[in-house]
Specification:
Blueprint (H helix, E strand, L loop, with lengths): L3 H35 L2 H24 L3
Length: 67
């Protein structure tokens, strides 16, 4: 029976390399998304409106909860 340690180390190396590449891609996509959101006044405007609407809705729900 062959020694499983070299195979285990090889598979671990491949797994770590693939995981690293996935996180690099996630980071690049997150940076691109952040840049698009932060540099767009239109997106900022709609984000502010969305958050304001969400907080208003939560406030109404809290006021109507009867606690």
């Amino acid at each position: 029976m062959a020694d499983p340690l070299p195979q285990l180390l090889g598979l671990s190396t491949v797994f770590m390399a693939m995981t690293f590449l996935v996180f690099v891609v996630y980071g690049l996509l997150a940076d691109a998304f952040r840049s698009a959101v932060m540099e767009s006044p239109r997106v900022q405007h709609w984000l502010r409106r969305g958050f304001a609407g969400a907080f208003a809705g939560l406030g109404v729900q809290l006021a109507m909860s009867g606690r």
